Amino acid sequence: GESVGLHLPTLSVQEGDNSIINCAYSNSASDYFIWYKQESGKGPQFIIDIRSNMDKRQGQRVTVLLNKTVKHLSLQIAATQPGDSAVYFCAESNDMRFGAGTRLTVKP
Amino acid sequence: DGGITQSPKYLFRKEGQNVTLSCEQNLNHDAMYWYRQDPGQGLRLIYYSQIVNDFQKGDIAEGYSVSREKKESFPLTVTSAQKNPTAFYLCASSMDSHLNTEAFFGQGTRLTVV
To answer: What is the pLDDT of residues B31-63, one digit of tens each?
Structure first.
């Protein structure tokens, strides 16, 4: 079946830098996407979502970009902080399956 | 407070025993899900339920069973047929599996079989 997957399994950034986490999806019919953050030993938590009629959506320090042409999502975190260290997953809402996730490590 | 609760947080069982993991939500959500997570890996879908009294197999249903007798409850039984049951189990719920809404996750149950 079709699936959502991530390009990079790990990402290490310096505190204060910006982070970019990427996600590829294969179902061209998908119209809603979500990013989740999972801290160690906890369940994933919703960060931000985007619908297919949008290219960009901004939250507090986070921005999600959607490129439907190449079926690609990205999550941008501005001024990355140690508390941002976690695994990040993208998901398509109409298919509750997740990619492998990207582990973000923030170096002080 | 509204939310989704998994219990217990840690569970130890002897090999060959069945064990049931609890998942309760008071969000009035129709859809509920069970995932398995192994160290350093993503979430794999075990079972999901779109409405009470109905459920479907996910990608790794073998060795697991579920029930959905009440809207707020979706317990998962790990049976002795599951070859490698030690893992972190996550339950989630969403308003409706077709309405494009986010999922709310419990805090997980870490099952260790010895």
So the answer is: 999 999 998 888 999 999 999 999 999 999 999
Beta strands in B1-114 (DSSP E): 4-7, 10-13, 19-25, 31-37, 43-51, 54-57, 64-66, 76-78, 87-94, 104-105, 109-113
Listed by number, the residues of chain B in 23-52 with a beta carbon closer than 8 Å to a beta carbon of chain A are 31, 33, 35, 41-43, 45, 48
- Nearest CA to A30 out of B90, B5, B100 is that of B100
Closest CA to B113 of B21, B8, B11, B20: B11
Look at residue B1 and tell me whether its pLDDT is greater than 50: yes
Q: How many CB atoms lie within 10 A of CB A103?
A: 18
Contact between chains at B33 and A96 (C-beta distance less than 8 A): yes
